[in-house]
What does this fold into?
Amino acid sequence: MSKAAEKGDRLKGKDYDKELKRLHGELVKLQQWVVAKGLKVCIVFEGRDGAGKGGSIKAITERVSPRVFRVIALPSPSTRERSQMYIQRYIPHLPAAGEVVILDRSWYNRAGVERVMGFTHEKDVERFLRGIPLVEKAIVDSGVILIKFWLEVSEAEQTRRLQDRVDDPRKIWKLSPMDLDSYSRWYDYSRARDAMFEASDSKHAPWTVVPSDDKRRARLNIIHHILRTVPYKALPREKIKFPKRQKPGGYRDPKYPFKYIKAVF
It folds into this structure.
């Protein structure tokens, strides 16, 4: 950890933008390597409400191809899905060769929100926690590079961010009645997290905890960890030369009355 981080100093925007630009360049190299070598990468994001999962995922994906980096955020399960093996609805979204799949919340909903909010029986949670290491072992043995992040935010910072959602019309959609109910259950979530770690922090699929009170540092550290975990090399690039444009060949601008957008700005 840097001395500035140890002191609790927030990362300056200028320093963040400079390092993020560099890391984005490395993510593009990783993307090209993943496609060329047929790697399969699955990145799981979990954490408390307001911990910064969405912003971290956006920071990862904003300069890469959505055809390679696919973000999966599943809605509540349907009636049919509730009758299936719990992890079954996530299996179809696991990466094929040449893909990076990012799960914005995952099968660990069973050990987190469903447990805390009483949406499932305790025996189902215990059964899930016993079985998930075996499922993840099968996923890893199939060739998937599985990375699991838990974003941890402090009580004070979580309160500040949730209040910001109330005050900012751009973010109010992020705040649901579930978030407010969850907010009151801080220590229930702490107990659920601890039990989840104890059961599923394995050698083949370890948990990596990301302190996220400083969003900028968290995002940079997450990208750095991905680049360090997924083996990649920069592929050689051919020199790019633009061809000459064709001649008009008699083309003239049409008299058709194009309907231009209103220039408000």
About this structure: Strands lie at 40-47, 69-72, 99-104, 144-152, 207-211. The chain has a mean pLDDT of 94.
